[in-house]
Amino acid sequence: QVHLVESGGGLVQAGGSLRLSCAASGQSFNSYVMGWFRQAPGKEREFVAAARSITWGGGNTNYADSVKGRFTISRDNIKNTVYLQMDSLKPEDTAVYYCAARIGSSVTDLDRRYDYWGQGTQVTVSS
Predict the structure, then answer these.
(1) In Å, how far are 49, 65, 92 from 74, measured between CA atoms?
(2) Which residues contact 12 (CB under 8 A, 6 or more apart)?
(3) How confident is the model at residue 29 (pLDDT cuts 50, 70, 90)?
(4) According to the model, what pLDDT value does residue 58 have?
(5) Quick one: pLDDT at residue 118?
(6) Residue 92's CB: how many other CB atoms inside 10 A?
(7) Among 51, 56, 15, 54, which residue's Cα sits nearest to residue 36?
(8) What is the DSSP letter of 53?
(9) Is residue 73 within 8 Å of residue 95, measured between CB atoms?
């Protein structure tokens, strides 16, 4: 069982930056692929980024095309925390951002493959 708590959301102007954090409680954090998803009003939840633990034989990451080059996912396996650094933010990045975890090694972009979810944190980018 993993309990996830996001933080770091807020209001930022276009072109600005935010860093989201997701603290995981429970054991075996290194066994989980950690992902970020987002959901804008009236839209489906969509994949943002995912990161595999280095314990799976090498860190591996996956990004949605819409955020490549602007967002960076990282994880601190000592603090049991995953981060999402968001730079060059755009109004279309406005959404509730969710942290998710799944057991395994695949940095899949399919939300149904994730087992645990946080409560979400709001990110609003003004133009």
Answers:
(1) 10, 17, 22
(2) 18, 89, 123, 124, 125, 126
(3) confident
(4) 61
(5) 97
(6) 11
(7) 51
(8) -
(9) no
